[in-house]
UniProtKB/TrEMBL annotation, chain A:
<feature type="domain" description="THIF-type NAD/FAD binding fold">
    <location>
        <begin position="23"/>
        <end position="546"/>
    </location>
</feature>
<comment type="function">
    <text>Regulatory subunit of the dimeric UBA3-ULA1 E1 enzyme.</text>
</comment>
<comment type="pathway">
    <text>Protein modification; protein neddylation.</text>
</comment>
<dbReference type="InterPro" id="IPR000594">
    <property type="entry name" value="ThiF_NAD_FAD-bd"/>
</dbReference>
<comment type="similarity">
    <text>Belongs to the ubiquitin-activating E1 family. ULA1 subfamily.</text>
</comment>
<dbReference type="GO" id="GO:0019781">
    <property type="term" value="F:NEDD8 activating enzyme activity"/>
</dbReference>
<dbReference type="InterPro" id="IPR045886">
    <property type="entry name" value="ThiF/MoeB/HesA"/>
</dbReference>
<dbReference type="InterPro" id="IPR030667">
    <property type="entry name" value="APP-BP1"/>
</dbReference>
<keyword id="KW-0833">Ubl conjugation pathway</keyword>
Automatic annotation (TrEMBL), chain B:
<dbReference type="InterPro" id="IPR019572">
    <property type="entry name" value="UBA_E1_SCCH"/>
</dbReference>
<dbReference type="InterPro" id="IPR035985">
    <property type="entry name" value="Ubiquitin-activating_enz"/>
</dbReference>
<dbReference type="GO" id="GO:0016925">
    <property type="term" value="P:protein sumoylation"/>
</dbReference>
<dbReference type="InterPro" id="IPR042449">
    <property type="entry name" value="Ub-E1_IAD_1"/>
</dbReference>
<dbReference type="GO" id="GO:0031510">
    <property type="term" value="C:SUMO activating enzyme complex"/>
</dbReference>
<comment type="pathway">
    <text>Protein modification; protein sumoylation.</text>
</comment>
<dbReference type="InterPro" id="IPR033127">
    <property type="entry name" value="UBQ-activ_enz_E1_Cys_AS"/>
</dbReference>
<dbReference type="GO" id="GO:0005524">
    <property type="term" value="F:ATP binding"/>
</dbReference>
<dbReference type="GO" id="GO:0016740">
    <property type="term" value="F:transferase activity"/>
</dbReference>
Amino acid sequence: MTEIVMDQTPPLLQGPSEKERKYDRQLRLWAASGQAALESANILLVNSGAGTVGVETLKNLILPGIGRFVIHDNALVDEADLGVNFFLDDGCYGKPRAQCLASLLGELNPEVEGDWSPKTKNDSLGSLLKKSPLFTAIMYTYPINHVELESLEQYSKEHKTPLIAIHSTGFYSYFTVRPPGTFPIVDTHPDETATTDLRLLNPWPELVEFAKNMTKDIDGLDNFEHGHLPYVVILLHYLDQWKATHNGAYPSNYKEKTEFRQLVRDAARTDNPEGGEENFDEAAAAVLKTVAPFSLPSGLKEVFEYEHKDPIQERSMFWIIADAVKVFYTKHGSLPLPGNVPDMKAQSKVYVQLQNIYKTKARKDAAEVLQTAQAIAGAGREVDPAEVDLFCKNAAFVKLINVEDGGDATPLGSKERLQQVLRAEMANDQVAEMTLQPMSLFPIYLALRGLAYCGNASADKTQIVEAVKSLLSDDLSSEEYGDLKEKMDNVAEDLARAEYGELHNISALTGGMVAQEMIKIITKQYIPIDNTCVFDGIKSRTQVFRV
Amino acid sequence: MDPTMGNPMVPMTAQIPVPVAQPIPLPVLTRDSYNSQSLGRSLNGNVKQARVLMVGAGGIGCELLKNLVLTGFGEVHVVDLDTIDLSNLNRQFLFRHEHIKKSKALVAKEAAQKFNPAVKIVAHHANIKDAQFNIEWFSSFRIVFNALDNLEARRHVNKMCLAADVPLIESGTTGFNGQVQVIKKGVTACYDCAPKETPKSFPVCTIRSTPSQPIHCIVWGKSYLLNEIFGASEDESAFDHSVDGDNAQEIEELKRESAALRKIRNSVGTEEFAQMLFEKVFKTDIERLRSMEDMWKTRKPPEPLNYKDLLEKAKSLDKEKVLKDAQKVWSLEENLVVFNDSLERLSKRVLESKNAGQESIITFDKDDEDTLDFVAASANIRSAVFGIDRKSKFDIKQMAGNIIPAIATTNAIVAGLCVLEAFKVLKGHYEQAKEVFLTPFANARMLASDKSREPNPDCPVCGVYQTRVFVDLEKATLNDLVEHLIKTDLGYGEKDFAISNEVGILYDPDETDNLEKKLSELGIKSDSFLTITDEDDEEPFVNVVIAIQEAKEPLGDKPVKGILDPEDVKIPLKPKKQPQPELVATPAPTNGNSTSNGQNGGVIDLDGDEPMATPAKSLKRGHPEDAEGPSVKKIKANDKAADDDIVFIEDSAGAIVIDDD
């Protein structure tokens, strides 16, 4: 079935360096590991309706180089398609839309393999899903028919495939990203300055000894040596001094920290030609940020406290390493050391020694975690040390997405969930004027859902509003909703006027946002939205909901 | 359509009565059915008639051109000077492998045209700063879209649009970040209303004598060594050798060093060349530096290298293997291998063009492997000399090449936002125009929009009164302008005022020598700008900028003629100085992935430890959810830099600023 639809074969890129050059500008965002994940991705688009938004999304995935795509689309190309879809030209008129799109999109990147469906009368989405290689992610656009939707949901459940729903009509759009179950991200790309962990309040013996050695005769050092003490060493020295006069306690509140900062500042020598010392300035500047007791970051806390419902998921490599890190944390009261040292004023030789002390400790911590993880994984399962290293380096910033809330929260995807979000949003709207917040975009989301529910291009305002009421099992007139009815009428009227048509521009913009989130999911880098993003093209605004 | 179509969020078991619509025959759909339905007939008509200009056909440009064509804009002009490069293909989807080295503007037009034959696309493979694109030409457009990647071209288009009073939609992207803003003269803030970040700067002596970071060595390799050996004839004016007490001696020495290096240039292509060059810059020069004991009192002195010893050690290395691994940090020996090999490749190019009778000039281009290898290897060898960390070629490329990450998705979002703002401009609804920022690390919203800022009354570009004058360039003197326009039509009367252009003051009450000179003798041409500064202490006019326009038809008795009736001239007074000027954060120019004037003047994140460039925003409108706040620290740094003498060394891949302390 893997017939390649490109009718021309442009030259494939020569060797790795040429490919590296082509993808240079994006490699700087997601590195070779992200690129490799993209290149092995197999993406299905189930296209329907006016059919532009899905294609625009796919374009933004083909350009950065996914491995393979398949377009399933039952429509034949008509005149309106030509006006809204860039990847269809006059020659496509009357032909299967899937075929034309696959061909023109394929031209964008000769390294990406493309296919389409249905090719014969007997082909269906169901048969495609059966015979295709496993899909990495599946996106579909409204108005998809319910038979096809059910087979996608079935497939997603069975194969743990992320599903992405997209709906663009007129000036409005939304998309929902549904990863299969809880989705952990290790490589969240935190701001580099945030990742610095110097362990000043719980230094390990090697670091203590190094600092003590350098500062044992701090007043006897000549100006050059004194002016080149790394700020880590300076802070460790004066923290010791502070403890000695404060019953062994570290500076703990803002007042004490500013006092401590002054202590450090006053220790700088001013009788030198420069009239001050840069390294002491650096030390004073670092006090508020680095002199802070450890507390478990919320993202990691969620990971540690997570209750597994799925035994298969529990055995995944992420959770094995997470458990090992938890063991480490329970034992030591701290996380594995990331090991990076920020640039600071110091003699080169000393700075390199300092770097080595941090690196050695980081390696030791990671080795311990690896050993624990290997024990948890058991014989016959190899734990990748690189994966452990990455986890240890990013431990403080690990994040879970698509977690089912426990307790009273209503399950995602349920009618009760919709009602709950609606009530909260409308309550916010009541005070929006006072809090200077913009109005909620939730009515737009509901109206688009209502339109899809009608499934009819000629649905009028009343029908769309009625469909929303059915979806919610609610007549929308409750006092707590404020002027929801009026808002709903306005959006529904705009949608009815659009007659299920897409504006190319809105769909192109939405396609950019959807592709961005899909790249995050495929590369498992950066934090994807959780889980629905609504776009209002009239106000150029977006809002994210968990529904 | 199927009335039973369901929805995934509703369990199929929940039997909710579905309103079933009667099937109604669909209207016959035409090419612009959807546009006409959603935009409304009036706006759709406006769009079809609009003649718009798009400056830049790169990352944002490709997306924007597609959107403009499919939205049905009647006529689109595209200007771009750049040609297509392999590294564009990951996002500039109108281009293919076979288009590499061809004009972006022309290929983009070809590719986009076939998708909507009704739209007229006109492509200009040219620099937007060319004289042909004058104010009159700008004023022939309904809207101008900026899809540029550099500060200089952005500023130029901003100025031209203000002069022509054409609304400008300005946009930029950097990695996952992006922004869009509407600029309308007198209504919203212009591009220059908020100060822009200037590129990072380095003292000359840090680069040439006392480097302490990898970037110092990279700048040395790129802007000094490569330039002196292969670049344009040495550009004395690029270096400010002004002497002050502290560095006088060192600057003198550096001059002598450069002169000696230039002599070696004549030996390019000879067998001994690599050794000569190596021993000059990594041995002789280093020994001289090392001998200056004062310099190394508080620094680790550099270690000169021995070419022969190093070559011996490098003998066993596999050159091809080394060259292939751009991600690895090369050892000193590996760097020598790359140094020699790239030198050989560059020398060969020089000899080839010499043999062909052409002058050979090689300038740094991050996508030219030969120059990149040379800069990477020489920077790393210098780092070894000074005990500084070496970097991989991949990292050096980013640092030397001013590479701003760029992806298809961000460009798609920003281009879409541009068109949405264009709708408001077409309707004249400037009060609804928004300044929109992508907030990729604020997962609760992804986009943030703000009301357009108001013009800054102190803005040097738009806080002025602009007018135009038709001039008979053959006849008109400066005095004609003073007597027949400024004193009379513009209403200066007996006020004291000065006239200046980009060169300097042409006239003021004490400087009247130029009055009798013809404008042409003063270098004033059509589309030159003159600034009138009111020198009265009380109630002065704001500065007036006059755009000179060559008269196309005879002007009658006077050789100058203002564009406005004197009665319509209303020059505002300068705003009274506020005690506390509004605090405006520095907006970072972002990247449209296209070059229209051949230079990349954007922000250079030279040492790689600055946060990603933040989109323009002012402090009073801080977004609590934003992962990146306005960069206050940067303002401070810039203020400091502005006080020093700044020397620009420009080359094809970016302006590196060296400030001479």
